[in-house]
Amino acid sequence: MATASARRHSAPPARLATLPADEIPFLHPETDFYDEQANQISKTIDEEIKRDSARRKDASRREVKVMLLGQAESGKSTLQKQFQLYYASKSLERERPSWRPIVHFNTIKAVRHILDELDLDLTRVTTGKSAEGSDASQEGVSAIRARLLPLIALEDTLASELSGGLAVGGGRAGVYVRAGWQSLVTATRSWPIGDTSRASQKAQVAANMAAKALFTLRRDISALWQHPAVKRLISLRHLKLEESGVFFLNSITRISEPDYIPMTEDILNVRVQTLGVIEHHFAINMGGISYDWRLYDVGGARGQRHAWIPYFEDATAIIFLAPISAFDQYLEEDGRTNRIDDSLKLFTAICSNKLLKSAHLVLLLNKTDLLKQKLQAGLKVKKYIVSYGDRPNRYEDVSEYFRAHFLQVHKRKDVGGRHLFVHFTSMLDIAATQRIIVAVGEAIIRSHIAKIGLL
Ligand SMILES: Nc1nc2c(ncn2[C@@H]2O[C@H](COP(=O)(O)OP(=O)(O)OP(=O)(O)O)[C@@H](O)[C@H]2O)c(=O)[nH]1
Ligand SMILES: [Mg+2]
């Protein structure tokens, strides 16, 4: 391992470093003394390289890279939060205040959506296009609307500031998050792009204005939410709010309190779109060994899916989430594609992707709580999925029908001859999800060990 220049030096190697370049003595080859020293050094270096390589190999064997995949709103980030809650609850605790403006944003967005639908309803009634409606049911709405206008005016600014000045997709206001987004509203870490302090200050100003407006107008929001015209629109299914909107409107008094800090349940209910790929680290102990668990949470909308590919080759496992409550919903990015159909196509692409052929596969059929609610409310699956035919419109039959379709995709398209772990989940149910997280974590680590050999 001795280098050519070192072998020609007659002085003991330790002196070399202390000599200025122009005083380096003439080098005599074939010095016994030097050869012995050089061999010793060479041996030591070789051993160190071997040890380093063993350490690296060991570390890479303990590294478990798990990707959360699935369409937008399938519940990937919610699952990531559940992992964080279980394996790194202190970090979730620290982030708690940064979720407050996002809870407020979700609420303002829902209020704006209600007012838009009431507007549309009035137009339908006045143009004679609605047989069911009556503008009498909107009595009092215009006064509430006038008072709520300053709150609604904050929606776009808040969305833009919370997203770090990003405007994605155009049209509907939304909040998009990338790695490190919490620093924008907590000012504890630096935002990775642009003028960090200014971005953070602007986001905090917008967040404070929204918090004040929500507190001042909380009774009007409540009155709007309880209004018979709104109830009528919901029962006619003209008004379909995001789940987070319903949850926060039901909690308006609590979340608009000046000293409000989001509870874990609030954090799980929040809706923000993920941009790109966000990496999270956890240490998971199994059998006395600590595994470096890396979770990759991705943006699931169609325009985001290209960003997944660079991570495929290294993935130890894929957890694919399919929201089976979405049988009556269509993609936001393509209003003609049924969400279940999109999930099945995406799952087909994942099962048949050669880059992923050695990754373990876990399928979570998510949002079972919402599926139950929709079926109980009388929504008919066959109206949206014709092939469901005259099967019973019960939870057991519907969930089994969807499960069978995903299993069939796996059977036909899987390139790796892999086992598929399948679970029904309701990601907002903390106790049930934590049990599944432990089971899934152990199954993935066990398969990983089986593949790479015992540590
Ligand atoms: N009722 C119910 N809501 C859920 C469930 N899982 C997730 N949600 C809600 O669905 C919404 C979307 O969840 P996210 O975790 O943000 O979805 P995502 O897959 O990360 O979406 P993108 O980041 O856009 O790809 C959030 O408001 C969650 O609270 C579930 O099992 N039941
Ligand atoms: Mg997400």
TrEMBL record:
One CC-aspect GO term: heterotrimeric G-protein complex
GO molecular function: G protein-coupled receptor binding; G-protein beta/gamma-subunit complex binding; GTP binding; GTPase activity; metal ion binding
Keyword Magnesium belongs to the record: yes
Listed Pfam families: G-alpha
Keyword Cell wall biogenesis/degradation: no
Taxonomic superkingdom: Eukaryota
Residues engaged in binding GTP: 73-78, 268-274, 366-369
UniProt xrefs under PANTHER family: GTP-BINDING PROTEIN ALPHA SUBUNIT, GUANINE NUCLEOTIDE-BINDING PROTEIN SUBUNIT ALPHA HOMOLOG
Protein name from the UniProt record: G-alpha-domain-containing protein
Organism: Cylindrobasidium torrendii FP15055 ss-10
